[in-house]
Design a protein that fits this description.
The protein is α+β, with helices and mostly antiparallel strands. Helix content is 44%, strand content 30%. The protein starts with a helix and ends with a helix.
Amino acid sequence: MMYAIVGVIAFIILIAILCGVGYVKAPSDRAFIITGFRPKRILIGKSGIKIPFLERRDELDLSLIPVDVRTSNEVPTADYINVRTNANVNIRIGQSGEMLDRAATHFLNLRGEKIGQIARETLEASVREIIGTMPLEAMVSNREMFTNKVLETAVPDLAKMGLEIISFNVQDFTDANGVIGNLGV
């Protein structure tokens, strides 16, 4: 009888230790993705139990990621004037379950800087595409229209990766020949 009681107590202590080791608590700016023995679980701002040795905990950074989008080369506009542009963009991993699943597929355990580099390439491609379709005067005088057109092309591409744009602000357009400066005169 004594051995049975000691065995039960040892079993309870073992379970308590395993649960203590497997206890995870996700902060509100990170998503913990627990996979393995049970169906996948996503924890954001709450706690859960991960079964040691049978389940794995991975992370997604949910904080805002600033991205500086600069066209690396001059891009010809619709009226064949070569320009460069500079924009500041803030992105983040989408908060819906579908967006989190997509982001987990592409960005699991990556830091925000690396996610920003990947997003920068997509955003720069969208900016270059829109520059090529608009006349210079329209871009410079109506930045909101330019921004909306860029967002129309960039948002679906980023959504496929589980990312969403929080803000997109065009800082400036420049050209080597002074055409933009002459437009102001």
